[in-house]
């Protein structure tokens, strides 16, 4: 299959005057398409339900995303956070400012560059995330226990194993 030149101004896109690659050479099964759509839709609804089941303490989704990322990845600069969230540096600086005012993050000198500062979670920030995760897990545990049979819960575990394998590909 011939390669289509990429439009360097729009990463991952072909040039407007070129045709896109023919993906029909590898047809997918109807069950793969249905499963992909269903997984995406169900995970989206589940994510909303988990988010709704927890106390956000007035945090915006962007603020929550930043503290979650810092928890997983560790300290980062405002520039790194802005790039990760795909927002302007000024917008991220404002987001970090609110989180700092609330005592959820703190700024410390970058040990590799004394002119730069790194943003990291405080104990209160970690506590907020742990509380949210625990509340979401408790809601989901109760829901599965109250509304699903043992066989259904085992089917969920089996499906999760398959999805975990898919994420590793």
TrEMBL record:
Record domain HTH marR-type: where: 32-168
Residue ranges with Basic and acidic residues bias: 7-25
Ranges for region Disordered: 1-34
Residue spans crossing the bilayer: none
InterPro entries, alphabetized: HTH-type_Bedaq_tolerance, HTH_MarR-typ, WH-like_DNA-bd_sf, WH_DNA-bd_sf
Top-level taxon of the source organism: Bacteria
PROSITE patterns the record matches: HTH_MARR_2
Pfam families xref list: MarR_2
Protein name listed in UniProt: MarR family transcriptional regulator
Organism: Yinghuangia aomiensis
